[in-house]
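BUG-362 | component: ligand-complex export | severity: low

The export step for adenosine-5'-diphosphate jobs runs without errors, but we want the raw record kept on the ticket for reference. Input record follows.
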Amino acid sequence: MTMIAPGQTIGILGDGQLGRMMALAAAELGYKTHVFGQDPNSPAAQVSTAVTIAQYTDEDALRKFASSVDVVTLEFENIPTATLDFLEAIVPVRPGKKVLEITQDRHLEKSFLNSLGVPTAPFANVESLEDLRAGIARIGTPAILKTRRFGYDGKGQVKINAATEIDEAWEEIGEQPAILEGFVPFELEISVIVARGINGDIQSYIPVENKHKNHILDITLAPADILISISEHAVKLAHKIADQIDLVGLMAVEMFVTRDDDVLVNELAPRPHNSGHWTIEGCTASQFKQSIRAAAGLPLASAERHSNAVMRNLIGDDINHWNDILCHPEMSLHLYGKAEAREGRKMGHVTRLFPLGTAPKV
Ligand SMILES: Nc1ncnc2c1ncn2[C@@H]1O[C@H](COP(=O)(O)OP(=O)(O)O)[C@@H](O)[C@H]1O
Ligand SMILES: [Mg+2]
């Protein structure tokens, strides 16, 4: 069945804060949720109707999970393709296998983007030290070497400033399949979050600016302070990617804006994204609601914003300030229910709205 009506159950693969906010949005639309994850007290498990704790290779658990839900969506793109095949034989999975295969692998992803005429940093596939030497000879330095798979928050990447650092870099990323990228001296980093429904209808949120600290997203400013022409161009690129990858769901498109006003796509994430958390307060429908609508085969809501916003992540010990934040009535505090505030761990976020036409400030 293509449309999953309220009252039915949405399965969510992954159990972190994104899954938690997806489950909350699903509940607001009258759905039940069933989370497939690894921790019975995870952020998503705490707010879901049902939970399965199992590995992605556990076919018994997958079969039971798939039979108990009406559609499967995800908060995490690194689901093994064998798991997706297994689930898709029983229940619709949205977004589907093709989208995940491409976005799990940085080399497939950038090759796909270039095949659409979407510009990226120059890149080379690296499977050996020789490939890396050849890549550096072609692309030059500085460059960034990234593992093809499983990287996040800057993990699995190393900057190469000079050819003398090649051997060390190859060792540092664990001598595994990688991609070498030319270093882009960007002016700013932006992202566009786009939702595409089962009938191909598209809604996208305004491009936002993302500022990182220690390779982790620190602040999102909505909207990004860029020329309207660049903003429109970025949105067009995101729509083209969503159409061409045949997305049914929600996808974040991370981009670099260069000094010459070029827009290069850096990364795709086929799920709600940290840079879209502001949409909970700032828009008619949040990225989480939109992702649930798309997965359920419902019409999409408007992605129009009614306010500008700034979103700040609460990382590790930042969470200790929850009390102070609550003393600011203009701030919306979100906590993810994680028991332990480890360094670099996303514990929550804070959003502050600004009237349209005024610049969002930290
Ligand atoms: N080719 C590049 N040139 C310049 N900076 C880069 C490049 N690739 C990544 N970065 C920086 O590193 C950050 C993390 O890289 P990214 O590819 O988005 O991986 P992930 O977010 O999965 O860790 C980016 O947000 C950007 O700040
Ligand atoms: Mg990224």
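Assignee comment: Attached the raw record above. Residues 228-244 form the longest helix (17 residues).
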